[in-house]
Each structure stands twice: as structure tokens, then as C-alpha cells.
Amino acid sequence: MSFEEQINIATAQVSTGLPIFICDLGFIKEQLISARQAIAELQVSHPEPPPSNVHAAYMSPWKSHRLNRQLVPLCESVKIIATFISRKLLSANLDALNMDLLVTDCWGIIYEKSDYTLPHHHFPADFSCSVYLEVEPDASPLYFSENCQIPPKPGMLVLFPGILTHEVRPTAGRRVVIAMNLNKRAMFDKPAT
Fold first, then answer.
1. Phi/psi class of residue 91: alpha, beta or left (left: φ > 0; alpha: ψ in -120 to 50)?
2. Residue 26 lies in a domain
3. Is residue 5 part of a domain?
4. Which domain holds residue 43?
5. Is 168 exposed, middle or buried (0-12, 13-18, 19+ CB in 10 A)?
6. Is residue 9 part of a domain?
7. 3-state secondary structure string, 37-101?
8. CATH label of the domain that carries residue 153
9. Would you call 33 helix, strand, or coil by DSSP?
10. Residue 10 falls inside a structural domain
11. Residue 126 has pLDDT above 80, yes or no
């Protein structure tokens, strides 16, 4: 019998309140415009969606920020915002801990009427986020639970722990989104502070 076959795991659920952070990105409007242009270009260069739980009119590849450089400024801004949130709201000064955040995945999604995404989480990502580029008034919210649904707005960032289960229920209105996963990484080449 292999080592893994001998492992017996029991689970328990802990009811906890995980934070969700919402930020208006109106101050980086040019980056949002560039990101929308990147999605349009990716639709041409990479028209086939990757396998996923997303059922939408279009989804770009998981590593789209490596395929279209117009996404990089938005990824960098989200990284800065997530680092700020870590320091100011989660009491975790990543720089002092010789850590950094890295955008490991970045993809675009265009939802049309009746499109949806099944319930899922992004573990092992530390943070996940949605950046809303276009939103019609009747677009579905980002659904976390019966008590927590975030209605999207153009130019809005929703950042949350990657382990948090969420979904998009069938939408009545169009929404264009950039999603990302961010992970911590140790910065061993930095001198200790």
C-alpha cells in the first residue's frame, strides 16, 4: 500500500467571515481601456476558450497577461492595491516579511445574456479578483452566498481570498470582466529589514 493510500483525512467546517474588498478603479481609466482592447485582440488571436467552469460568450487563456502586454499595467495596479490592502487592512506588511505578490493568472470573460459560471474557488491562490470593464444594469452579481452578492459596476475591483467559493448566476445583461489570481512569493534576494 502506498503512502498516500494510507492517509485518512477527516474534515470539519469553521464558520468564519472572510473579507471581500471593493475598490473603484476610476483613477486608472486608461489601464481599463487598454485591458478591454486586449480582450478584443485576444478574441482574434486566441478564439478558443480553455476548459473551465465558465460558460460565457468568450473566455481568454488563463495566462493572457503573458499573451497581450496591454494587460500588464492593470495587473501591476491590482498587485499594488492588494499589497496595500494586505498592509493596511490585514496587518500583513509583505515587504517587511520579504514577500511579494505575483499575478499568476489573468484572463478575460465576456458574459452575454444567460451566460454563467459554476460555483468554484481559486485555491491555492492567496487572492482572486474581478475587474469589471463593462457592465449592463441587469448584469448578475458576483455571488458568494445568500447574504453576500456584489453587484458589478464599470471600473470596480472586487478582491477576495482565493479559497472563497463564488459563482456568477445566469446573467440578464452583458458584463466584461478581467479576472486574476495573485500568490505570495518569498523574496529571498531582498536583504532582511
1. left
2. yes
3. no
4. 19-186
5. buried
6. no
7. HHHHHHHHHCCCCCCCCEECCEECCCEHHHHCHHHHHHHHHHHHHHHHHHHHCCCCCCCCCCEEE
8. 2.60.120.620
9. helix
10. no
11. yes
Quote the CA–CA distance of 138 and 28 in Å, as a whole number. 25
**pLDDT band at 193, cuts 50/70/90?**
low
**Which residues have C-beta within 8 Å of that of residue 127, sequence separation ≥ 6?**
82, 101, 159, 160, 161, 162, 181, 182
How far is residue 124's CA from residue 181's CA, in Å, rounded to a whole number?
A: 9
**What gap in Å lies between CA 111 and CA 14, rounded to an integer?**
33
Give tens-digit pLDDT for 136-186: 999 999 999 999 999 999 999 999 999 999 999 999 999 999 999 999 999
Task: Say which DSSP state 11 is in.
Answer: -
Instruction: Count up the domains in the chain and report the number.
Output: 1
Contact present, 102 and 94 (Cβ < 8 Å)? no
pTM for this predicted structure:
0.92
User: Angle 29-45/72-88 helices, nearest 10 degrees?
Assistant: 130
pLDDT digits (tens, 9 = 90+) for 40-85: 999 999 999 999 999 999 999 999 999 999 999 999 999 999 999 9
pLDDT bin (cut points 50, 70, 90) of residue 192 is: low
Q: Which three cell numbers stand for residue 58?
A: 468568450
Q: Taking CA 190 as the corner, what is the angle to CA 67 and CA 180, rounded to the nearest 5 degrees?
A: 30
Q: Which residue has the cell 500500500?
A: 1
